[in-house]
Amino acid sequence: MPTVGATNEPDPNRVGSFPRGSRHGDRSSSARPRETAIDYRATTDTPTAAEMKSVERVLGEPDSMWSGAGERSPADDHVAYGGFRHATDRRHLLLPALHAVQDSIGWVSHGALNYIAQRIPVSPAEAYGVATFYDLIATEQMPSRVARVCDDIACISQGANQLIEDLEARIGPSGVTNGEEGAWIRSACLGHCEKGSAAFVQRAGDTAVTIAPATVGAIVAALTGAAPHAAAPVRLQDHALPALAEARVMGSAAVRREIATSRIRGRGGAAFPVGVKWEAVASASGDTKYVVCNADESEPGTFKDRHLIETDPFAVIEGLAIAGFAVGATKGYVYIRGEYREAEQQLAAALETAGDIGFDIEIRRGAGAYICGEETALFNSIEGFRGEPRQKPPFPTVTGLFGAPTVVNNVETLAAVPKIVLEGGAAFAARGTAESAGTKLFCISGNVRSPGVHEVEFGATVRELIGLAGGVEGHLQAVLTGGAAGTFVTELALDTPLTFEDAPAGGASVGSGAIVVFNSDVDLGEIVSRIAEFFSHESCGLCVPCRVGTVRQHEAVLRLTTRGGDVVSDLATVKELGVVMRDTSMCGLGQAASIAVESAIALGLIGGDR
Amino acid sequence: MTDAPLSNPRLAEVTINGQAVHARAGATILEVCRTNDVDIPTMCFLKTLTPFNSCRLCVVEVSGSRNLVPSCSRTVENTMEITTESDRIATARRTLYELYASSVDLSLVDTETRRWMGAYNVNPDRFGSYVPHREVMVQDDLYIRDYDKCVLCFRCVGACGPDAQNTFAIDVAGRGLTATISTEFDITLPDSACVYCGNCIAVCPTGALMFRSEYEMRKEGTWDEDRQSITTTVCSFCGVGCNLELHVQDNRIVKVTSPMDHETASGHLCIKGRFGYSYLQSETE
After folding, report:
1. pLDDT above 70 for B233
2. Domain match, A273 and A360 both
3. The complex's ipTM?
4. Of B103, B170, B174, Cβ closest to residue A125
């Protein structure tokens, strides 16, 4: 990390003539702040040539001396650049620019941040606020290779603790640099739960890779040696996108009618009727509208969206294009989780293969923040702000991405759209149950014989779904349904159908479609603590009930699971925190942060006599 | 109440604690409540800044809404039924104050906050008392920053940024409980874009940001607000006409603020109005 204020030391790697934007000539030897193109002031920390090059891959070459180009030319004195409009127009490129530096250099130095800030332009303090929001962007110098190793709930059931112990023995503790072997850091769920263990390796100057299943040997090899062989992507064949053509023949109103008839509800977890959302955006006023595919799948135990994108990216692209056509959107975005590099490449390849489909789709990459799966936080992230949620109302259908009416749908929801268009909404609605139409993907992992993604008609029970995954390995203790924001069930409730109408009565949740099975060898106290820790790590920090409440909840759960405190008082604390977080948190993260913990207590899995 | 359109579209008819009142359409619930003498606690809200929605203390019940609703940012709608006091709301506010107390030094919060904490029987040690963990940042002659007292209300960020000063020297960095107000890479204020307008200090509700003069006097034990008088005058440095409130103790200016309800500056000043008073007392030095 650059020393505070120490900017006078000459650095042979630094570009000597920078900064070049001062009205008063070269002041690079001065520690005084200099002026950027629109009044944002920065220190004189300068970028290296490599850092500048990586930023310019996103932002292009600077077009004048004012934005950092070469020597001052006479023309520079007679042209007004920048201005508020210019600044706000390019703010959305902030995260891609940070990504570019992180990817090629391995961290964002003060000089690199200054250059990005000058080029966007945005104030360095704001750019720093955005950079520090994301787990995958480092603002302190890191080893050029960093492995993020999953220690989340599904992986714990598969022996993640042993893997971590072995890594500590081989490399050292989490987060600490150990010479050439690089560093490793504990990570929340990486979305490869069916493979038993996973690591995400960031490599400066090279594309990040996922290792799953992850072993100490494979992780060390990725940190020190040649790149591991990435899994061969599913081969893409020319795809005609017949449903998109059909939708254009039908007309947008007819497409929306079919979607409404299908009674499909959102597959991301909130289960909002898709037809209602589309109709609201279609009838909203304004010339600019957006459709966004939410591929920021980060719910622990969930990997269906990654699976869909890797195996059938055209369905997602086609569904998004149909959504765009149906609501009159001007552009579509896919916001994909930063750890899903392989899926992102697959999706990009599919977009390329599909060619001109008459609808503009852009892929945006997240940078390691669960909260960005919340729709309004996702907008802020794309727009180049910290990925904090916005107070609703106004809802995205009225004021969404860049302030325009916006449809946000989950990957699985959009992937179902082409089929609905081709076969008709009635055919889709004929499957499933009264309140839960169609089919649903469930991700079954943990202690089952063959974990994976299974598509079933709505109505299947938890027991049937576990059966599809080969049944429980060992003696069943509990099942987490719906993800970290879902609920635990035990043997007694396994015959509950996982439908929107029946699941709550049995204490189960559909949620994101995650089903994590734990056998009697698993320490459930550890699982519940990990869930509580997950929420406190992922809280954005904007509102108090979530920022402080998730931490106090984690502390109480730790005391409950280690029997280190007054059980009665801690149970009361968890209960009251749950009520207050649910009642007062701004977004779904805080509102749902206590659900799994409270369900574990209600079932006596923690905090009571078993 | 019915959904029948009102005769005057500029008015919304709402119910506050069972009492029907007419409100200006587009006003926030908080605004309407305060206009009607219904008091609601706030921490992050300040009428001269865009609502930040961070403290959640101003939550109320609104009919048809599953969760409590922050009254500072939610606008009234016709036929809205609003409840500002209930067991549910009291539990929420008490717990929120207790969460604050568990993570932040509240020793210098304003009297309003103290009053509300008393009213809701707040037990500051409910979740454990806060542990000091950051040094006071004294980097220049004008400001100090004591982030152990920071409730992360975002007021200073708004005042430094788009709501007043447009300097953007500070923003929130990090995430979750470790999030903090910071310059880029935590450089000192003199190295940063800060222009020393003092507007961040003027809006800080907890004493996390303080003028150096006040900080030193508090340290010496000489700061005594009971012995201070406030004189209102007009700043003499330029022609804008910002009002100044000179806080005077023992015939010396110890702090300069500006009235929030004054239309010229809305409580905001520049470095000259805020700190350019030492010539007035040069003879006494």
Report:
1. yes
2. yes
3. 0.95
4. B170
